[in-house]
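Project outcomes to date are best conveyed with an example. Our students and postdoctoral researchers have been running inverse folding experiments weekly, and each run begins with a structure described purely in tokens. The record below, which covers 117 residues, was selected by the lab manager from last quarter's runs and is presented without edits.
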């Protein structure tokens, strides 16, 4: 093996296999292009994008990490969205959620230290 060499398995990898994907039609009603990254909370995207926002709550694009989808002004396209996994806590973006998504697992309780012990 050469330092830095990457040896990959034969065959193809299916991204997000078995995830509950939904397809939504999205239209850019604005006059500027809008680009959405792979892990951006789709519910909180630019207001110029017209789509069923309720169906997008807690979901992100079903595309490879580090990539994005661009919507040109007046363009419509169908996108596939998958739910966030893990703790399902959404913070930041456009600050429309700022916390735990419904149906998310409860946080693990931390053991409290006793005083003097």
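After processing, the design step wrote out the following sequence:
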């Amino acid at each position: 093996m050469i330092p830095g060499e990457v040896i990959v398995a034969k065959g193809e990898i299916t991204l997000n296999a078995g995830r509950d994907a939904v397809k939504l039609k999205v239209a850019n009603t604005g006059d500027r292009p809008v680009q959405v990254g792979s892990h951006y909370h789709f519910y909180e995207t630019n207001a110029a994008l017209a789509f069923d926002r309720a169906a997008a709550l807690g979901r992100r694009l079903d595309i490879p990490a580090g990539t994005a989808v661009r919507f040109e002004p007046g363009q419509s396209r169908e996108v596939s969205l998958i739910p966030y996994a893990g703790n399902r806590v959404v913070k930041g973006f456009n600050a429309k959620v700022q916390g735990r998504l419904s149906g998310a697992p409860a946080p693990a309780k931390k053991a409290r230290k006793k005083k003097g012990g």
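The longest strand covers residues 76-83. The helical segments are 53-56. The training component of this project remains on track.
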